Amino acid sequence: MGDHLLDPHNDFVFKRIFGSEENKDILLAFLNRTFMESNEPPLTDIILMNPYTEKDSPQDKQSILDIKARTIDGKLINIEIQLFNRYDIEKRTLYYWSKMYSDQLVEGQPYRELKKCVAINILNFPYLPNDQYHNIFHLREQRSSIPLSDDLEIHFMELPKLDDSTVPVDGGLANWLLFLKGVNKSAWEVLTMNEPMLKKAMTVLEFLSYDAETRRLYEARQKYLHDEASLIEGAKTEGRAEGRAEGRAEGLAEGIAEGRAEGKEEMARRLLALGVDISVIAEASGLTEPEIKKLKPLQ
Question: DSSP H helical segments within 210-288, as ranges?
Fold first, then answer.
């Protein structure tokens, strides 16, 4: 991708392209390619619940620039793009899914009112132990695979698992993900051959890349994300170092304890050899009388 272009997998840029009212058709095309792979019926429209506004400033350190949408039949969708591996990503996604699911009901509403919730995680790092770039999770019975409920659906899309050198000409989700990954601009024409709406996403990215204010906000967000990544990596490194130090300390403590135990037994043996009473040896060594009797040589 050209130097002048912003990274589309930066969450601020991603939301500008996919989470703006004027680009709702881009989001719809991306979701339909996603749901084609999970055998969902195609969507005809989508309602943005948190469209991009100026309040989505990347300078707000607490902001999560995700995309929340609702289908016409009430199904809820949350899309989040993540540049680096946070702690406990699977628990994080279940937590946000469960909040999305439970927040649907107001007091007194029956459970049957709950609609399906879909969490889509686009990751800029490999995460799951397989070669699939798109993994879809549901609630299934362990042996027979019968579904308990269709209400839970979680997607993981891992950008590093995509092969940049092979650009699919027949279209599909891979083309969208290659664009997000930042495939070289020379491949754009091939990517859009069977994905016309992807061409609009590319045009929006080019427009944003030449806008000075957008670039300033983008660079502020990049700095924040890299700082956060450094802090997390630092904490992980520190944790590993502490774990090693604790291991060494535990080993040392065990060694001292073992040495003390061996010293007590040696002392008890010598006192036994001198004919000292077992009760006196117990008091002097800290060993119990049965422990001392075991040390006593057989007559």
Answer: 212-273, 278-285
Reduced to 3 states (helix: H, G, I; strand: E, B; else coil), residue 237 is: helix
Query: Got the DSSP string for 52-93?
Result: --TT--TT-TT----EEEEETT--EEEEEEESS--TTHHHHH
At which of 194, 210, 226 does a domain end? 210
For the chain, residues with pLDDT lower than 50 are 2, 252-253, 255-256, 298-299
Q: Is residue 3 part of a domain?
A: no
Q: What is the pTM of this model?
A: 0.76
Is residue 64 domain-shared with residue 144, that is, in the same domain? yes
In terms of residue numbers, what domain contains 247? Answer: 215-299
pLDDT digits (tens, 9 = 90+) for 64-114: 789 999 999 999 999 999 988 877 899 999 999 999 999 999 878 899 999
Tens digit of each residue's pLDDT (9 = 90 or more) over 129-139: 999 999 999 99
How far, in Å, CA of 272 to CA of 53, rounded?
A: 86
Q: Which amino acid is at 21?
A: E
